[in-house]
């Protein structure tokens, strides 16, 4: 479908599960060479994806991993900064450890990996970076101060990269709402406990909040990332693309004809 992605070297952070895994698999379908860095390497991995065990929050770890990648692959054409974590608390309950953990992975992780990929892209006079932010950079839930802040920060970083490295490098952000991944299941368990029926009910309830009536699939985020990575989106940079089933357009206010 996207012929220009064939043979491209693509690095996806957090490609071991959830959205990152779907993105990695979707690039494979287009004939790209796919590498992924994540904290754990899955056992049921697709052996066409080259996995690297690396913590995106550690600058030395990232530096040596990117060097290792570049010794095997001839450059990195496309970078997808997807790795991220979510933890829940309002500000006064957010201890310094939680704040630092979320900022280090969600924001500094994007800085670290981009920092070591961008010089390669500059050398090649071309590159494409896609950052996975969240609908929470737009509308927000309660009790997620650090996460919400981190996802807003990613929008700023996306715009900075887009402006500073145009026209050779494009950079855009994708803002998903609730997507069916281990992260969302973990959030449901925190709310309703480890009970399969209650978890399903909670996820269904979240889905009904979205105008499209369901939560999203990782593949639906992946399809948007592929579009942004391809030449089909050649005049889009610095943008924030919602993949949210309409969640962010809905005001929670009733109207007379309801
Ligand atoms: P997940 O928990 O299912 O997968 C997260 C991935 O990130 C895993 O591969 C994990 O190994 C990797 N990772 C986490 N910390 C890392 C670190 N320090 N270094 C390297 N890799 C690390 O999460 P999910 O749901 O797939 O989320 C992916 C991204 O999408 C995250 O940035 C998340 O904030 C964002 N997102 C997810 C939504 C959802 O509803 N699932 C909604 C909006 C945004």
Automatic annotation (TrEMBL):
Q: Which NCBIfam families match?
A: PRK06398.1, PRK07231.1
Top-level taxon in the UniProt lineage: Archaea
Species, as recorded: Ferroplasma acidiphilum
BP GO terms, sorted: fatty acid biosynthetic process
Which stretches are transmembrane? none
Stated name of the protein: D-aldohexose dehydrogenase
Q: Which family does it belong to?
A: Belongs to the short-chain dehydrogenases/reductases (SDR) family.
Q: Which InterPro entries match?
A: NAD(P)-bd_dom_sf, Sc_DH/Rdtase_CS, SDR_fam
CDD domains found in the cross-reference section: SDR_c (cd05233)
Lineage of this protein's species? Archaea, Methanobacteriati, Thermoplasmatota, Thermoplasmata, Thermoplasmatales
Recorded hits in Pfam families, A to Z, give: adh_short_C2
